[in-house]
Amino acid sequence: MFKKVMIAALAVVVGGGFLIFGSRAISHVRLAVRQAREYAKKQVSPEQELKRLRMELNDSKKEDHRIVDSIVKLEMDVERVQKSVSAKKARLVRLDSEMKGWETALAGEGTDLRVSFNGSTRQFSRANVQDQLRTDARTFLNVKNSLKGEEELLKIKQETLTQTRQRLSERQAHREKKLAELQQLENSLLELRRAQASGEATGEDDRLSRFNQDFQSLQERIKSEQRKSVISSGTDKGPIRNAEEQSKTDTEVDALLKSRRGADGSPVAGR
User: What pLDDT does residue 237 have?
Assistant: First the structure.
């Protein structure tokens, strides 16, 4: 129905709109579309709309699945960056310790220096120790700068993970709230339908009551017509004569019944 109304509206407006209204035709098209949508919306029963809204809420769970996937990915990223940060921190500690060993050795005299390195004491030339110290210093700075960047990245990912979890929780809570509200609305609609059904039953009782009233009215009308007929035919002798004749009839009935009984009041055989 909606498609038919939409097509008809657009055909009328688009076909003659530009010829009649010129630049205002677009506004008329928009108006026709809006009216068609409103008409289609009115054709949908409340029960059907409740089913549609419930379907929309259930379909929103698909978006939850995508959010869950994002949370899992973020958790894995956070874990990976945390491991990298821990490894860089451990490397900085080790480099700092080795640099202190080079510096301690260079504080001594001579061209050959004894240095504690990798768990054992070895002898290296002063020039090699100086070169190693400068190399380790450059490595230390590079690792430190890299660590700073990864710590910032870790903070961002942790905050994003927290926000995403909160978003999922809020969506789920909102959906549960709306489902509860939909259930309340559906209950109210059921109450309304029950009241309407009760009203229809009351209407049927009212029709039966009206029938009884009409029936009694018809009876009275017929009696009235009969009374009029008696009066107009001249058979009505008036209340006094009618009563006298009725009394005479009753006397004759009494005499008949008396003749059928004996002196003691018992029935006489053969009569």
Answer: 59
